[in-house]
Structures are given as C-alpha cells and as structure tokens.
C-alpha cells in the first residue's frame, strides 16, 4: 500500500511538473508574442505618422496655392502661376486641376486643351468637395492618363463665396518609394496598406505566398470594421489567421493601425509568421 501511495505521489509530481512547465512555456510564448506586437505597434505608429505628415504638408501647399488671386480667378497670368508651382512640386504631383463651382474644368496643368469645360462633377472626390465644401482625399484610382493616383482636393472661396475647387493628383509611385517603402520594408514581415474602401494601396511582397487579391487569407472587412469603430482606440488591433509559407500551413498574425486622413482613413498593417516569432523558444 505504501509503495502504491509512493508511486501515486511520484506520478502526481510528474504530472504537476509537466503541467507547470506547460503553463510556463505558454506564458513565455505569450510574452514573446506580446513583445513582438509592441515592437510592431511602434513601427506602425511611425509609418502612420509619416503618411499623415506627408498629406498634411500636401494640404498646406494646396491650401496656400488655392488662395492666390490667379488661381481663384483664372486669367492671363494663371498659366505661369500653375507652371511655376507644378515645377516646384513635380516630384510629388502629376497634375493640378482647377474646377468651377459646377464641377467643370477651368484650367489644368500640364495643359490639356481638350479637358477644358469637361464635367468631372460625378467623380467621387469632386462630388464630395462640391457638396460639402471641405478638403477631400480620394480613393486610389486610375487617371485618364493611365497612371494610378490619389486626388487631394481643396475648396476655393473668394470673399466667402464658393468658387469651386482645386486638386493635386499625387505622384503615387513617388509617394510609395519615398514615404512608404523605406519604412515598410522590414525584414521578415510583410507590410500592407489598404484604404477605407478596402482597396490595396501598398504591399511589401517579402512573402509571395501571402495572397492580397480576391483570395485574401484574412478578412479585410473585419479589419476595416474594427478600425472604424468609434471605440477602436480601446480595441486590440490584432487578428490571427491561417496562411501558407513555403507550401506549409502556418499560423499568422496581422497587427494593424489607423492612418487618419481627415475625410477618410487608411489601415496600415504588418503580417508576421507566429512560428518565426516563437522559433527561438522552440529551438
């Protein structure tokens, strides 16, 4: 009986030891993932700030330009005004367009004569600024010239009277190469940037097995709903999902944050392989 009791105590001790070891192991993994999340949150805040600051500076430039006499009232001096401003900012913008209060093009630079008097009031960003008379950042779209761009639009007023709007078409490639890529291309993770409507703005393809087309391995709508929630600042912006890397199913995480752009927002996120993060503990 004593031997049986001793064996039971021995087995119980082993079971408790294994249980405590498992709990300790799980806690170490939890802390490792939490540390990784905190590091990525710092990175995301840095990237969000860079993007927000970029658009703030663009808005300030456009607002300053919109108050010039030869921009408010198109005249014989307007061409030089537009030309000089465009050449000073040509790395950041592809075109400048002035529209009337009815949404018709009054002037554009580079000059496109055939575009004058064209009605572009139905374009979403123009429609919004004409209705609300407030600055607008558009969704990513393809311009008639064939390049991908984003419109930044400011209303124009003269002595308090609404006189239409003026817009920049952002040099999308320059924005990505100068503002986003230098920060977003972290070794070992994939960075993704999506608009409020769910359109992909940027993806650092460090892992070609992550799908970002219509067969997404994570649900963008869940992210967008979470980030647009009025209480989102109090929510944890982490989603777990299953993905493939090197033809193997792996547990992944997307850690994300909001980029506030005034009338709209973007979501910036990083995708990490959980197994890679925990590899040092399991090695």
Features:
283 residues, alpha+beta, Beta-Lactamase, 2 domains, 5-stranded antiparallel beta sheet, elongated
Summarize the structure.
With 283 residues, this protein is α+β, with helices and mostly antiparallel strands. 42% of the residues lie in helices and 27% in strands. It has a five-stranded antiparallel sheet, with helices on both faces.
Spatial ordering of strands, largest sheet: 2-1-7-6-3
Q: Helix count, per DSSP?
A: 7
Number of strands: 12
Order of helices and strands: HHHEEHEEEEEHEEHEEEH
Mean pLDDT, rounded to whole units? Answer: 79
Unreliable stretches, pLDDT < 50, 5 or more residues?
A: 206-216
Instruction: Tell me about the largest β-sheet.
Output: 5 strands, antiparallel
Q: What's the number of structural domains?
A: 2
Describe this structure in words.
This protein has 283 residues and is of the alpha+beta class. It folds into two domains: 2-55 and 185-282, Beta-Lactamase (2-Layer Sandwich); 67-171, 2-Layer Sandwich (Beta-Lactamase). It is 42% helix and 27% strand. The chain has helices at residues 2-66, 69-72, 78-88, 124-132, 172-184, 220-228, 274-282; strands at residues 93-99, 105-109, 136-137, 141-142, 148-149, 151-158, 161-170, 190-195, 200-203, 238-245, 248-260, 265-273. The two termini are 43 Å apart.
């Amino acid at each position: 009986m004593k031997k049986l009791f001793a064996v039971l105590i021995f087995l119980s001790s082993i079971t408790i030891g294994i249980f405590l070891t498992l709990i300790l192991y799980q806690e170490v993994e939890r802390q490792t993932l939490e540390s990784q999340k905190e590091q990525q949150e710092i990175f995301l805040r840095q990237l969000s700030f860079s993007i927000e600051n970029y658009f703030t500076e663009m808005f300030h430039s456009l607002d300053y330009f919109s108050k010039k006499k030869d921009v408010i009232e198109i005249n014989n001096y307007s061409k030089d005004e537009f030309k000089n401003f465009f050449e000073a900012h040509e790395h950041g913008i592809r075109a400048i367009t002035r529209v009337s209060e009815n949404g018709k093009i009054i002037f554009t630079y580079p000059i496109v004569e055939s575009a004058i008097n064209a009605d572009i009031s139905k374009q979403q960003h123009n429609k919004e600024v004409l209705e609300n008379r407030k600055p607008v950042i558009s969704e990513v779209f393809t311009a008639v010239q064939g390049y991908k761009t984003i419109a930044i639009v400011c209303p124009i007023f003269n002595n308090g009277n609404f006189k239409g709007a003026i817009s920049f078409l952002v040099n999308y490639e320059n924005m990505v190469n100068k503002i986003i890529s230098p920060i977003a291309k972290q070794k070992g993770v994939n960075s993704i940037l999506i608009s409020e409507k769910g359109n992909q703005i940027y993806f650092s393809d460090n892992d070609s097995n992550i799908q970002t087309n219509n067969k997404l391995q994570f649900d963008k709508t869940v992210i967008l709903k979470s980030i647009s929630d009025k209480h989102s600042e109090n929510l944890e912006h982490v989603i777990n999902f299953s993905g493939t890397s090197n033809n193997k199913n792996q547990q992944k995480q997307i850690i994300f944050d909001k980029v506030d752009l005034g009338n709209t927002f973007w979501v910036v996120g990083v995708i990490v392989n959980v197994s890679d993060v925990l590899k040092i503990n399991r090695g």
